[in-house]
Amino acid sequence: MIKVVIIGAGNVAMHLYQSFSEEKQIDVIQVFNRNKDHLDFVKDPELRVSNIDNIKDADLYLIAIRDEAIEELATKLNVTNGIVVHTSGSQHMKALSRFENFGVFYPLQTFSKNKSVDFKEIPICLEANSQKNLDILKHVASLVSEKNFEVNSEQRRALHLSAVFVNNFSNHLFALADDYCRENDLPFEILRPLIKETVSKIETLNPYSAQTGPALRNDQKTISAHLDLLDEDRKKIYTILTESIQKLHGKEL
Amino acid sequence: MIKVVIIGAGNVAMHLYQSFSEEKQIDVIQVFNRNKDHLDFVKDPELRVSNIDNIKDADLYLIAIRDEAIEELATKLNVTNGIVVHTSGSQHMKALSRFENFGVFYPLQTFSKNKSVDFKEIPICLEANSQKNLDILKHVASLVSEKNFEVNSEQRRALHLSAVFVNNFSNHLFALADDYCRENDLPFEILRPLIKETVSKIETLNPYSAQTGPALRNDQKTISAHLDLLDEDRKKIYTILTESIQKLHGKEL
User: Fold this and answer.
1) A186-220 pLDDT, tens per residue?
2) ipTM, 2 decimals?
3) N or C: which end of chain B has fewer CB within 10 A?
């Protein structure tokens, strides 16, 4: 049995807890958070810890807290043998270099409190301070997910930034369209099949080849008709993304 | 049997042909294109027509050609009784006002030559010059799709513009991330589950509530770390979308 302590009570900690608890070869022995009230998701109350000095010996410590709080927490955590990892996309592995065994266990996914995700599908990005520790992390990752990747700190930062583009920014485009539909008495529902197909398409095509639309066709008539319909803020976004599509596809405005 | 003539040989015409041909209550009697070579997708060669004067009497004429070509084609098309519709998101219904019975049959989806789509799932946006014609279009639409909506020309234009945001622009964000991953020796594969979840999330949440990320959290440290990693063009896109997220969610930069 691999003994695991989870540190944190946010969305990532909660989803890690749920997925790790279901795995027979893993024993989640404790979940730590300064405020015990946020640990309701931990079924057995005896596993909830709010005093950092009461954290027990474990094989793996998963730190799933806000980026800014990681280094400070690390100074307070007493660990003898286990591997200490954080789960952040943007923090360098070195944030944990005061430990003998350390690394990163970054699940690349967007987690929400009220939406379950299939952890098996989530790519786990791994990094460790030694090959031995990396092998252990790979083993643990393989128990909870079908996909793991060795990713160094610079690459992980690039991934985290890419995630902002594909997740945060796309979702914002959906939100802008939702607003715009509402202004025009249209249900956002009408757009859902298109959004679904946008993603389904890139399962077989790369995004470059999947591109369509007035920007790609350099259809100036449609582009200027669209710009006429938009307010200043949306016009800026429309223009900059249209230019970027044309630049990527080698067209001049 | 509803007799249908399809005009055009592009992606929309091809997908309409495929879906309409499968429906027992519809008889696709002809598919017209000036250049017959592009009509290979029409199984029966006798249905292929390249001379507009040879178009037969039908109940419905579906014009699925480039926006700019619709009005000119309309002047050459001889129709006695049938309803003439175009399938464009951005053209006004009036482009067909020289006919007695006219309207719009706009399938809101992105079509590619080599990717089949489930037409039943595609929302069909309908408009007609009379209630009677609208009812006929609704009936035809219900034969090929489970979803149809009555949408006037102004709303349709707004939908078409929304489609650019949710489809063209999101896909471009995926393309930018793909490029950026490649520059960092990362496979785009790692991002696919995240992209899938981005869309899966908005099946249960509205996009406003589904928003996450450094812009929403107003996490200036991460935002400036990200900006430091980006070239000028990507930096512009990152900045404008970050500002837009913060504006929509009532945060000041």
Assistant:
1) 999 999 999 999 999 999 899 999 999 999 999 99
2) 0.92
3) N
The predicted model gives A230-250 an average pLDDT of 97
Task: List the A83-86 sheet strands across, edge first.
Answer: A48-49, A26-32, A2-7, A60-63, A83-86, A102-107, A124-128, A148-150
Cβ count within 10 A of residue A44: 9
Contacting residues for B222 by C-beta, under 8 A, at least 6 apart:
A67, A90, B214
Shortest alpha-carbon distance between residue A142 and chain B (Å): 15
B248–A176: do the CB atoms touch at under 8 Å? yes
In this complex, is the C-beta atom of B146 within 8 Å of any C-beta atom belonging to chain A? no
Q: What is the CATH number of domain A156-248?
A: 1.10.1040.20
Range B2-151 has CATH code 3.90.190.20: no
Facing residues of A63 across strands? Answer: A7, A86
Closest among B157, B144, B41, B148 to B93, alpha carbons compared:
B157
For chains A and B, count residue pairs whose Cβ atoms are closer than 8 Å.
Answer: 300
CA torsion sign for A202, A207, A212, A214 is positive
Q: Which residue ranges make up each domain of chain A?
A: 2-151, 156-248
Grade residue B253 by pLDDT with cuts at 50, 70 and 90.
very low
Is residue B3 exposed (0-12), middle (13-18) or buried (19+ Cβ within 10 Å)?
middle
What's the token pair of residue A152? 């160094």
> Which residues between 89 and 108 in chain A have a beta carbon less than 8 angstroms from any beta carbon of chain B?
90, 108
